[in-house]
Every structure is written in C-alpha cells, then in structure tokens.
Here is the input.
Amino acid sequence: MVSKFAALRPAVAPELRDWVDNRLISAHIRMVKPLVLGTLLNAAMIVIGLWSQVPPSYLALFGSYVVGASVHRLWLAQGIARGRRQKRTEKMLDAFQLNSWWLGLTFGVSFAWWFPHLGPIGQVLVAVCAMTQIAAAAYMVRTLPRSAAIYIGTQALGVTLGLAQIGSLQALATMAVLLAASGLLIRMAYTACDLFVTRILSDRELGAAVRTVKLLLNEYEESGSDWLFELDRDGCLHGVSTRFASALGEPVTRLEGRRFETLFVPNPSRDALVSAIGERRPLRAETLALTAPPEGEATRWWSVSGRPCYFSAEDRVAFRGVISDVTSQRLAESRVHHMAHFDSLTGLPNRALFNQTLAELLDEREDSAQLALLLVDADHFKTVNDMFGHPAGDAFLRAMAERMTAALRDSGLGGDQPLIARLGGDEFGIVIAGEDTCDKAVRFAAVLVEAMSEAYSIDGHEINGGVSIGIALAPYHAALKQQLLSNADIALYAAKNGGRGNWEMFEPGMDAALHERHTLSRDLRHAVGNGELRLFLQPLVDVETEAMTGYEALLRWEHPERGLIAPDNFIPLAEETGLIVPIGEWVIRTAFAEAASWDSDQTIAINLSPVQLGSPNLLPVIVNALAASGLDPARIEFEITEGVLLHNSDANIEILNRLHELGLKVALDDFGTGYASLNYLLTFPFDKIKIDRRFVSEMGTREESDAIVGAVIELANKLGMCTLAEGVEEPEQLARLKAQGCQMVQGWLFGKALPSAEYHPNVLRAIEVVAPPTASLGRPQKSAKSQSYSRRKAG
Ligand code: C2E
Ligand code: CA
Ligand code: CA
Here is the structure.
C-alpha cells in the first residue's frame, strides 16, 4: 500500500504509514468544527455583503453548495471520530480531498465569476474573505497538506482569475502578492505536517521504549528475588507492588505513602539511607534490618540500592531502587563470625574475641580508670579427663563456665563491662572494668574460688572442683595487653604453687620466681641422667624398744650450682611437669638396692606421689626392681598421701591392692593434713598410719591435737594398723605418744635424714643405679647409661 505521504521527508516505515495517516486524520478532525464554523460565517458575510450586486439565485446556489460541503465535512469527521466509518485510511483521505475540491471550487469559481462585476467594496470583501479562508486553511488543514493545497489553490486561483479580468496594474500586483502568499502558505502546511509526523513518530518510539521497560520491570517484579521501589519527593513509598507488600506482610494501602526509612531499624546504615534520599545521592547496597519482620521471623535484612531520578514536574517519582533480601547471607556471616569468636563448647567468647576486647578496653581506658584481668585455671581438669573420659571433661568445663558466669552475675562485682571468656583448655579469662576495680577483682576472686570449690555432679560422678586465679591490674601492673596477660599468668602460677584453690595478685617479684621455676625445671630434666639425685635415710623407731626397725628414703637433689636442694623445693615442680615418674622410678630402684645391701632386715619406706600412681609403668618398675635387688617384699613399705584416695580412688586402690598382693606394705602418710577424715582409714587396709608432724608438735600445747592423735591411734589399733608419729623432736613428745599407745616414731630425736652411709657405715656400696628410660626425660643423656657411686666405710 502506498501512502499519500510516501513523499514526506521523515522516513516512515511502510508498516507505519497507515498509522501515521490515521494520526494525521485524527489531528484534522479535531479542527473540523472551527473550520466549518469559520467557512459558514465567511459565506454568510459574502451573501449579505454582495446581496445587492449579485443576483439572489446565484447567491442561493453558492450558499447551498457551501452548506452542503460543510455538512459533508462535518459528517465525515463525526463518522470517523465515532468509529462509524471503518473504511481504509486511503479512502478517508480521498473523501477529505474531494470535500476540499467541492468547497474550494465553490468559493474559487464564485470569486472568479463575480469579481469583475463587483464594486470596489465588494471586491475588498471578497479579497479579505478569500485571504482569511486561505490563512485559516493553512493552519487548520495542515495535517492533510494535499487537502490544504487544494483548498488554498482553488480559492487563490479564483481570486487571481477575477483580478486578471480587471487587468489594471494594481490588480496584477495584488494577483502576484496573493499567489506568492498562497504558495508560501501551502509550503507552510507541508512543513507543519512534516514536523507533526516527525513528532508523532518519536513519541511513538518513546512510548514503545517505556512500554518495554515497564514490561521488563513487571516481569522482574513478579519473578525475581528482588523488589523495586519508588519514592516520591518526600521520601515516601509510591507505586508499592504487591510482591513488595507481601514481603513485608502488610497490605499495599498501609505502605503507600509511608516514609521509606520507617521500615528499618534506626542505625548508621539507616542514617546513610535517609541522607542519600534527602540529598539526592545514589545509594549502594546499604544493609538494613526491618523494624517489623514478617510474622514468625526473628530478623530480616534487606540490602537497598538506588538512585535519584530526574523526571518531569508531574512525575511524582524522585528516587528509584532495588531491594534484595540478604537475610540468609547475614545469618551465615553471623554464624561464621560467631564460630570465629565464640567457644563452641561453653558458648563463651573465645581467646581471639577476648584478646580483641581486652585490647579495645585498654585502648579506651581513661587515665584514671583501672582494669583488672583475672586468669582462672581449673585445678583438677587433667584428672577429670583421665579418670572419666573426655565427654565428662567437656561436661565439667561447661559446668565450670556456667558456674563462673552465674557467680560473676550474682556477685554484681563484674563492673560496667564484665567480660568472661574461655581461653583454651581449662583456662578462663575475666575482665573487670569500672570503679574500684582492684577491690572488686579481689573480692570476686575470693567469691569465685569459694564457689568453684564445691563438688560437681557430672554423669553421676561427684567431681571435685577448684580453681586457681591470677590477677593483674592495668595500668598498675601493665598498661599493654600482652604484658598484662603475662603478669596475670605469673600470678596464676604463683596461686597454683601456693597450693591451688586460691588467688594471687601479681607482684613484681613473681616474675623472677617464675623465671627461677623455669630454669629449675630445665635443670631437673637432666638431674637423673646426670646422677644428681641422692637418697637420704631417716630412721623409723619402735617406741617400746627404741630400736631402729627401718628407714624412710628421702630424696635430695645435689644441684651442681645450688648445692643440696630439699624435696619440697622440687617435688611439686616434678609432679607438675611429669618428671616425678622417671625420678620416682629411680627412687624405687635405688631404695630397693640400698636396702638389699644392708646386713640387717630393717625395712625401707618409699614415698609415692599421686602422679606416680597414674603411671602404667609403676607396677612393672616395682616388680623389676624387686627381681633385680632380690629384696624381701615384706621389708618394703610405700607411703601414700590422702590425695591418692581423693582422686581416681578406684583405680588407685586397685594399685594399692596389687602392691599388697606382691607382699609389699602400704602406709598412709601425713595423716591429718589433707582432708583429715578418719573415713580414709576405712577405704583401704593400710599397714601403717603416719600421723603428721603438725599434731606431734602441737601436742601438749593444743588439747585438740592430743585428742585427735589419741583417736587416730585408737581407731588404727582397732583396725590392726600400726601407728607412727612423725617429727618427734622432744623426749616429752615421745612419752606422750607412748602413753597414747603409738607404736612407732620418726624424728630428729632419733636421727635426721642423712646419707645412707651415716646409718650403714659397714656396708660396701657398689650399687648400680640404673637410669630410667630416657624417653620420658625429653632427650637422651650421655651419662644416662649407668651411674655408680661407691663409698668405702669411713674409718
Ligand atoms: P614426708 O614424707 O612427710 O617426710 C618427712 C619429712 O619430715 C622429711 O622432710 C623429713 O626430713 C622431715 N622430718 C623428719 N623428722 C623431723 C623432725 O623431727 N622435725 C622436722 N622439722 N622435720 C622432720 P624432707 O626430707 O624435706 O621431705 C619432705 C617431703 O618430701 C616428704 O615429706 C615427702 O612428702 C617428700 N619426699 C621426700 N622424698 C620423696 C620421694 O622420694 N618421693 C616422693 N614422691 N616424695 C618425697
Ligand atoms: Ca613420707
Ligand atoms: Ca610424712
């Protein structure tokens, strides 16, 4: 189909030509009524004006043609506007052109015919009416330029022909002006039409783009996981979609017009959102928590991005953006964060978070403010793990953490920001900040030691608690984190050394003490291998006969630089480091060999540490030493303390039974110092009870001690156990003990702990002292193979 406008300058795609023509016709239809009205008015003026100069029959014919053409044009326009005329566009254009011919010719022919016969006023009237009609057509019929050209052309030609018949110079000049003006107006009509077509085409393209975008956006809205939002100039929601509303669990009507930021919890991110919208700046992925998450959900996190939009004044939208739900990412992130900062067993902050928080607290600390660091260490955790297994150990740590947290909460001493963390293993850290920190820390440490000492019931076992605590103060002891931690650690060591179950505040001297411990423990590793250990003997005396019936083997360390070191100064260290096992083995072999070398059948008493009882090597070592020495088991006595019965009792009692089976004796040492319970006498058939030196020294000065010693002796005798009193220095003490029925004594009254040669001068000693397996000593010693010392009888 070829359009009437194929020649138009704007390139119109063939499939658009009909559409363009339609738009042109519609545009013209809007102008038809004023056009027709103007035409009728003009015609009326002409009829009235020329009434006396033109025969009425001609005027009547002219009037009826004009009215007919006007009605026809109106009828055409109305029909198209009301959709009655469904004809093809081409036909419609033809109809309008036909009507233009009709009207144009009616006027043109009339003008040409009448003009020469009119008077001057009549000619002016005709000329003015013709020019008015030509100008009006150039404007009102411009969207149908051919119709305009016909309409203008026929009338211009009519007047021109009229003028030509007059033939004067003025008439010719008027003719020229009229033709030029008409040509110009026709040209204008064509240009105006071109512009109109260009505009409607570009509008059409824009409209299509807008529709496409809307379509895409709708699809995005419906199917995507994200939502779009639009805000008006006041930052209120506009054009809320149903998906957006359902994500919030609220009806669209409640959201429309609501201030956007009220959807989110106030925080710095929300402030950033408010200022970006207010200042019309782009917003990039700001993560915000919803104030009212949908029902059944704890939190919802949205990531909001958007940018201001610069639209027309009527457009209400001032800001547009996208929202994505990032709740699952946030939760995953926070889980990872939690795992990185919290201990999974106890739920307390871990070492990393503790260190970080401590550093921050120290940084933020004002000059006058103090901060206390408490390091808390469980006293018997290893035993719990060994005895009851790791699940029980875990339960024990959890119970500890709970008790500690409760104690901190209940004490109200935690200060403004109490921090409690598990630093690893059985070590916990507490930070107390605020006022009177030192006082609070000390009071809380005392409360904690007390609270933690109560027994725990884990998996049906009664497990003894107890913690040691080291305290360091900032800035008094250290202002920097690392130094503060290390000082608290030193104080903790001091607390442990001080017998556990207590607390210590850091003191500058402790540092040196710790250093001393370190060197001592290093030297102790080599003590056995280097042959620095000595066994001294102290006589055990029968009260009745005052005969030395046996000896207790007491250990000494002959340190190459420090000289002779007493066991109290290195046995706890050896127990802590595990070195007591190889050392104890050395003691057993040496003591057996020593006793075997005597020419009497005196007994030998050997001290066993609780740690040694936990060693699977103990019984094999004893059996081997028995075989190697050939010593009569009946001459051997092992001394254990109440502590052995306290922890891991069943397993330990089993070992004691095995010792009995081997024919060895077992004595309960230091009776009365530990838990001072007579019940312990019933837990195992001890061969001997050794009453601690403290009771003996207090006898005569404290009535209570006399009573206790009396009760112990009585009960032990009833149970068929021998009683031995330690630390007898005075004859009066001996007399009292004798009166109470005590069978044996030991003490300086009869002899101090001395090298064995002092008590057995006649013995030729060539005792092979076999060093224990080097593996447990850390590294092999050259001199570890064998050490022997011999001493001839002096004098
Ligand atoms: P203990 O078993 O109670 O040993 C008795 C301690 O009392 C010895 O101290 C001894 O010298 C001291 N003593 C004896 N009579 C008197 C007295 O009349 N007055 C005074 N003031 N003290 C007296 P020592 O030798 O310093 O031993 C201390 C502790 O070291 C021992 O206490 C024992 O528990 C431990 N020990 C010693 N040798 C060994 C050993 O080979 N293995 C283990 N595991 N522990 C040992
Ligand atoms: Ca002893
Ligand atoms: Ca003792």
The first helix runs from residue 17 to 49.
